[in-house]
Amino acid sequence: MDKLSYLNGANAEYIESLYQSYQQDPSSVEFGWQKFFEGFDFGRGSEAPAVTAETPEQFLKEVNVLNLIDGYRSRGHLFTHTNPVRERRKHLPTLDLANFGLSDADLETVFNSGVEIGIGAAKLKDIVAFLKQTYAGSIGAEFKFLRTPEVLNWIQQKMESARNTPNFSIDEKKRILRKLNEAVSFENFLGTKFLGQKRFSLEGAEALIPALDSVIEKGAELGIEEFVIGMAHRGRLNVLANIMQKTYKDIFAEFEGKSYSPDTPYGGDVKYHLGYSTDIATVSGKSVHLSLCPNPSHLETVDGVVEGMSRSKIDFKYGGDNSRLAPILIHGDASVAGQGIVYEVIQMAGLEGYKTGGTIHLVINNQIGFTTNYKDARTSTYCTDIAKVTLSPVFHVNGDDPEALVYAINLAMEYRQKYKNDVFIDILCYRRFGHNESDEPKFTQPLLYKTIEKHPNPREIYIDQLTKEGKLEAGLAKEMEKDFRGILQERLNEAKEYVASNSEVKFGGAWADLRMATPKDFEASPVTAVKKSTLLEIGKRITTLPSNKKFFKKIEKLFAERTKMVNETLVFDWAMGEQLAYGTLLSEGKRVRLSGQDVERGTFSHRHAVLTLEDSEEEYVPLANISDQQASFDIYNSHLSEYGVLGFEYGYAMANPNALTIWEAQFGDFFNGAQIVVDQYIASAETKWQRENGLVMLLPHGYEGQGPEHSSARIERFMELCADYNMQVTNCTTPANFFHVLRRQFKRDFRKPLVVFTPKSLLRHPACVSKLEEFTEGGFKEVIDDANAKVADVTRIVFCSGKIYYELLEKQQADKINHVALVRVEQLYPTPVDQMEAIQKKYKNAKEIFWVQEEPENMGAWPYLFRKLYKTGLKGIDVISRRESSSTATGFAKQHANQQAYILAKALELPIKQEEVKEATKRASKKMAEAD
Questions:
Q1: 286-308: string of b/e by CB count within 10 Å (b at 16+)?
Q2: Residue 279: which pLDDT band, with cuts at 50, 70 and 90?
Q3: How far apart are CA 328 and CA 362, in angstroms?
Q4: Burial category of 285 from C-beta neighbours within 10 Å (exposed 0-12, middle 13-18, buried 19 and up)
Q5: Cα 200 to the center of its chain, rounded Å
Q6: In this structure, what are the phi and psi dihedrals at residue 20, rounded to the nearest 5 degrees?
């Protein structure tokens, strides 16, 4: 620090202390001092006066100017002109010169600090003007929280080299105006022709349309071949018409009610929830595929679905190259800040099993949620503050400045392609009407809506701007509007003549070889057996550990037991049945993807599909090492999310029906954190949108005394959603039947969601095994009759499902009960009524028929079955179960044991033995201790 000798003693001592702090931790001193200590050569080789002993103040002010520059870069976004209809909130300290040790008297002074922003030595007034233009105009940039210097510098250089100011050609400006005209005129046309009908107008945010148009063009230039888009209902019709190129005629026909045919078997959905896909040609002649995912009113539910669709297409269509497809999510300000699903999905961005190479997030920031003011809708400064979780840059843009928005989204596209990370664009705009067109917003925001009433639309503002710039020929804007309205009127006239027909649903793309299912398809399951030699060979491959790798001793023992199943006993447990299903499908060229919490090992330590070596972090996956010709086996432990991950896996299966896509819950009841996905997509997508899906859900279920939260997977929730053959619900009792039901997903030329209630204690139950021939013959059995019952002796038929069967069987055999036939209903829906009636007819001497279940009477399959069966030959069926309850199960081991003993005794017409209850209580107490 000898070079500071020109300063007086006090200053030199102060700077010396700063230097020592800098040496220990550069971030401990202000930005200006950081730059100085990095070797900045103040006052040399420039117009700035040299620093001498008489002028130490100039040196200190250079540091202050550097701090001013850093202040604009870090906090300029707080002082931008980005709100078109409101005064911005005040933030302190401001960026006034006084807050940086400067004053107006310094404005004419030349500072070498201008080098930092690329303009060389410059007067302070020019430095300030540069900073205001770049960081406090129509675009506010939040990026200084990023932790990678290269990324920080890239964004900084991009913005400062252009001063965050668009410089579009005349043709580019005309294209922006044309798309803005389409957006504004379309909304105006709908508002006048379909007065009072809900459309969830884009008015106030019409600049979204030229922005989307531009990002597609920019993306195509940078190698993007496909965009997958998700959005809620606000502005959806405008996007469908002016971006997705859905015909105006079709949209108008929906408004006219002409799209409905009384012969259609589908329920349909409102027009502003519908999806669409298309191929468009860019200006440069490139072809880009666009998919807009259907979305219910649950605003952000689509987020996970879009990410899953995107990942699926990246995996299958683009060979894992995520630079060729980009997801776009369009949020609302209230929902992006308030909906927890956004956080769940954003946390996937960098996870190996879920990343898509970066998502472009656009927020239509109306500054209001239905009637709720933005100040009541969040604690954070911005609705986009969640972006900081994944270190994603945010650009806040004035929605009345379409050029700024187009510039920002193009920059975002470049960033995404270069760094494969999420990026957010917060479009500050407004909602011209209420939540919908018939809603009165002045009830709750009277002052705001007085301002909005007088506020010109973005097209008018842009026309005025272009006119002042001399870039717009006289009358061109009016001619554009007139011509476009003429086109809209022609399409409306055509729509009025449109007659809907009940045409057969035909799939395209990856779904081209598939069809919609019919009731006849569910009368019997197809053959799903595998040749003995093939099964055993695959079994050997997935149970043989490489000799050159050292595994944990318990793993070696487990795999030795599995090898014995293949080579000696030819009897397989649940885990082997499952893995043989995957192995055979992989060998047939079908990709398998399994994700969920702890799925690699399995919640109950039964699967062990991914093995970690004892002395390293290296992993070995037996199912990925069957042969060189096999399909890919992908298994991922998810983060602790149900809603986001289930939506993701649904989207993955939605984009490609040629992979077995599975989501497993840690415990079955945890799926209720994702109930919205089940209700709005899995159960109803086919009826609403004619979209099939082959997703498999594995939900551990069974009453073993583990309390209310670890017993029931809420069978009743799924059963009440069953109708129109919309999904399959099973509760298998054998490894072989589980094997067949998984394989069945690919042995039919249609797809349906499959819900499997999987076992816990049965995973190691000695009776829950299957012989080799059960895998090599036949297929899935919807109903399994009692193989031990003598027809003439049976006076009571007990239908049951799942784990309770083994307890009934054990008790039946122990007490030598011959008059009760135990019949397993393996498929709860579509309910095999014909097969159940055939069982009833077989046992001609049976006077009683019961449904026996572990669940309370108001839960489980019974409520559905009672409603379903009372109109059939089984109408006399009654139930044996726990009594109705508001909670799924008791938390007391003794009460659980008593209830279970009651069910068994009543089903088999036996007295309850207290010693058996005590023994059951001990078992239940042990299970309780193991829970959680």
A1: bebbbbbbbbbebbbbbbbbbbb
A2: very high
A3: 7
A4: exposed
A5: 23
A6: -65, -40
Instruction: Give the 3-state secondary structure of residue 825.
Output: strand
Give pLDDT tens digits for 555-594. Answer: 999 999 999 999 999 999 999 999 999 999 999 999 999 9
183-199 residue pLDDT tens: 999 999 999 999 888 89
Give every CB contact of residue 723 below 8 A, 6+ residues apart in sequence: none
Contact 392, 415 (CB under 8 A): no
Beta-ladder partners of 878:
850
pLDDT category at 930 given cuts 50, 70, 90 is low
- Element of type H or E holding 851: strand 848-856
Angle 784-785-791 (CA atoms, 0-180°, nearest 5)? 175
Residue 450 structure tokens = 């007085």
755-783, pLDDT tens digit by residue? 999 999 999 999 999 999 999 999 999 99
Cα angle vertex 795, ends 789, 796, to 5°? Answer: 85
| Number of other residues whose CB lies within 10 A of the CB of residue 366 | 23
Can the peptide bond before residue 830 be classed as cis, meaning omega within 30 degrees of 0? yes
Q: Determine the Cα–Cα distance for residues 50 and 358; give it in Å rounded to an integer.
A: 48
The residue whose two tokens read 């931008």 is 80
Contact indicator for 798, 843 with CB cutoff of 8 Å: no
What tokens appear for 687 in the block?
């009826």
Phi, psi at 635, each rounded to 5°: -135, 130
Alpha carbons 357 and 416: distance in angstroms, whole number: 8
Please answer whether residues 734 and 774 qualify as being in contact, where contact means their C-beta atoms are separated by less than 8 angstroms.
yes
Interstrand relation of 848-856 and 878-882 (parallel, antiparallel or unpaired): parallel
Q: Where are the beta strands (DSSP E) in 762-819?
A: 770-771, 783-784, 796-800
Residue pointed to by tokens 């400064």: 381
